[in-house]
Amino acid sequence: MVLLILSAMFILSWQITIVALVLLPLFLVPARLVGRRLGGLFRRSMDLNAQMNNVMTERFNVAGAMIVKLFGSPAKEVTYFEQRAAQVRDIGVEQATYSRIFFVTLSLTASLATAFAYGFGGLAVTWGTISKGTIVALTLYLTRLYGPLTQLSSLHLDFMTALVTFERLFEVLDLEPTIKEAPDAVAMPEGPVAVVFDHVDFAYPAAAEVSLASLEAVAVLDDTPRTEVLYDVSFTVPAGTVTALVGPSGAGKTTMSMLVSRLYDVDRGSVTIGNVDVRQATQVSLSDTVGVVAQDPHLFHDTLRANLLYARPEATVADMEMALRSAQIYDMVSALPLGLDTVVGERGYRLSGGEKQRVALARLLLKSPRVVVLDEATAHLDAESEAAVQRALDETMARRTSIVIAHRLSTIRNAHQILVIDAGRIVQRGTHDELIAMGGLYNDLYQTQFAGQEGR
Q1: pTM, whole model, 2 decimals?
Q2: The ABC transporter domain covers which part of the protein (predicted)?
Q3: Of 166, 269, 400, 429, which shows the fewest CB atoms inside 10 Å?
Q4: Does residue 372 sit in helix, strand or coil?
Q5: What are the domain boundaries of the chain?
Q6: Residue range 427-439, pLDDT digits in tens
Q7: Residue 326 contacts residue 397 (beta carbons within 8 Å)
Q8: CATH dotted code for 2-174
């Protein structure tokens, strides 16, 4: 179409046509220069927005706001946020300014060409070398010529800014997931299952393996080298038995629980459940088999009902009430004005620590997994609640393969097997009485907690 318009214009007036062609680079050059500049500004804008959102998410949520108030830093945080917001505002104004200048330049170029056509054409009419109708036709052709060129230049501008978005998007899409389901994955076997750690070594992946600098709102990811967390760990949890993991903080107990649910893969050795390596199991069957209550359980900003149904969407009200009774929290829930329709707040902040822990236990009981992992599941309970929940857990774990992480040794005295973890290694194993008689780290921990309170 552009060639047809130029041909018609050349027939009508080759002089005006040549001037129109001379002005064409004025459409292309600004598009390249401004497009490149806007692309850089857009990339910087996304980084600044990510930093501002990170501040809002981290420091202005319930837990973050509480820390800010407790340390008396609201004014400092407000100032910091205002600085971030001002940077976002300024770069937004700069982007808008460049865009407006670009479009004004294109409009001015088209107007200059039209003005030249009328000026030169007017002189030509007075000289008698061209008619008035030809001038009108040429100006209309110029409008038809520069209209598509303006649109193409704008499209180039949009493409340059969109390219920045696609770059970040493809960065995320190209990031290889650390946990993949094997092509020949099999479902977990039915019935009771045993958990076996066989010569397991593990180190947490480096930051570059699991994230991107653009996602972390930093210029460069942490390059701390990987360090081993577990060394040659081997043990078996027979089906239907309870194995407790004890030891000082940072020994690797929670890490071992994460390997059972395959939040991470081992570096060497294997973790098997029911004689199936977790790396060869389907993700759905593995999540159905293993249930976890973390040390700090997460509740969604939704109703109690929705949080419970997250474990088993098809559960009935009777099922939920049974789970709540087993978790020793039914009386508290039934006393609430809205009952199961009570909203728990962000991360469950409207509940006490013990109540939140027991809701998480009820969610686990509703899921009814065959392997139970409890990471300090009674850590936030008072003595009375702990005793009640412990009875419910004993009843629940009696029919399931259970791994219990505990610092309070009173909760695991009846475990079939106790593993003492220190610096990523199993340093002792046995029952409570055997470990007390053996001496060593377990006996030291026990004496520290109970010396002078109760006999052995």
Answers
A1: 0.70
A2: 210-448
A3: 166
A4: strand
A5: 2-174, 195-450
A6: 999 999 899 888 8
A7: no
A8: 1.20.1560.10
* Radius of gyration for the alpha carbons in the chain, expressed in angstroms and rounded: 35
- Between the CA of residue 120 and those of 113, 186, 446, what are the distances in Å? 10, 81, 102
Q: Which of 128, 145, 131 is nearest to 8 (CA)?
A: 145
3-state secondary structure 436-455: HHHCCHHHHHHHHHHCCCCC
Contact (CB, 8 A) for 422 and 441: yes
* CATH number among 3.40.50.300, 1.20.910.10, 3.30.428.10, 3.40.50.970, domain 195-450: 3.40.50.300
CB neighbours of residue 84 within 10 Å: 17
Q: Tell me the two tokens of residue 8.
A: 């018609």
Do residues 245 and 404 make contact, with C-beta atoms less than 8 angstroms apart? Answer: yes
**pLDDT per position as a tens digit, 195-246:** 999 999 999 887 666 666 555 555 455 566 777 899 999 999 999 899 999 9
Yes or no: say if 328 and 382 are a contact pair by the CB < 8 Å rule: no
265-308 tens-digit pLDDT: 999 999 999 999 999 999 999 999 998 888 778 888 889 999 99
